[in-house]
Specification:
By secondary structure, this protein is mostly helical. The protein has helices at residues 11-27, 37-48. The chain contains two helices and no strands.
Length: 49
């Protein structure tokens, strides 16, 4: 069920949850926004580190 996960039970899940807000921010791009490929990759790498 949603919301039942307790932090500390799974390190990979803990890591993913710690990054979810930044991942969601990265995925939201306005219709009138654009970014060069290299810049996009650099931003993505920052999010997942």
């Amino acid at each position: 069920r949603i919301g039942e996960y307790k932090q500390g039970k799974d390190p990979k899940t803990d890591e993913a949850l710690s990054k979810i807000d930044n991942i969601n921010k990265f995925l939201r791009q306005g219709l009138d926004e654009s970014a060069p490929y290299e810049e996009t990759i650099q931003q993505l790498m920052k999010v997942v580190r």
